[in-house]
Amino acid sequence: MGRPSTSKPTQTYSALRNNVTMPFEVEPGRPYVSPYSQFFANLEAGRTSLGTTEEMEQRAAELLERRLECGIPESELRFQTVSYGRFALPPYVSPGEHRVTVKVALAAIPFKNELEKEIFLEIVGSRFDPKKGDLKLSSEKFASRIENKRYLVDMIERIVSNARKLAKEFADEELTTR
User: Fold this and answer.
1) Do 123 and 178 form a contact (C-beta atoms < 8 A)?
2) Which intervals hold domain Small ribosomal subunit protein mS35 mitochondrial conserved (predicted)?
3) Which of 30, 111, 160, 174 could hold 116 in an S-S bridge, CB 3.0 to 4.6 Å?
4) Contact (CB, 8 A) for 98 and 148
């Protein structure tokens, strides 16, 4: 069997070990300066280690954030599914296992005017909860959660775009009747 090596550590190894384990040396006549002083200065100034502020990071994230065609940020969509364990006997799939529910806050939907918002609320009807300010849609039309999720996202986009189209038609009609 192998015995532990009794040879001396290499020069590089011992230099690295000394840098890691030895305390920082203060030069006589000079105040101690922490090697982490710049890091802590960034923290105190509210900057990240990249030198950016939280506000700059927020703006960059908003620019990079993916949005639906209707303008809703994808991060505002909250999906919910139910999963049951696998059964050994038929039926292998439980009822409601493919159901997908999506919630989106009304404040996250970028309406251009109040008329669009009114028409949108008229279209969705009781699916909007005024207490919470959320729109809640469910689907189990397909035998796949992924397809149901795509269907719900498409449905939200169609509802918003149709509300905009109807609001524009009403506004145009109002202008022509005057």
Assistant:
1) no
2) 95-178
3) 111
4) yes
CA nearest to 69, candidates 104, 109, 100, 128: 109
Interatomic CA distance for residues 101 and 149, integer angstroms: 8
- In this prediction the pTM is 0.64
Is the Cα dihedral 126, 131, 134, 139 positive or negative?
Answer: negative
- Cα dihedral 152→154→156→161 (10° resolution): -170
Q: Where exactly are the structural domains of the chain?
A: 26-63, 66-177
pLDDT in tens, 7-53: 565 555 555 555 555 555 667 788 877 888 887 887 787 777 676 77
Q: Considering only CA atoms, which of 79, 76, 127 is closest in space to residue 99? A: 79
How many CB atoms neighbour CB 25 within 10 A?
A: 7
Please name every residue paired with 63 in a beta bridge, in sequence order, or none if there are none: none
The residue type found at 174 is E
Which amino acid, 114?
E
Instruction: Give residues with Cβ within 8 angstroms of 109, minimum separation 6.
Output: 70, 71, 72, 120, 135, 160
Joined together, the tokens standing for residue 100 give 């997908």
Residue type, 166: L
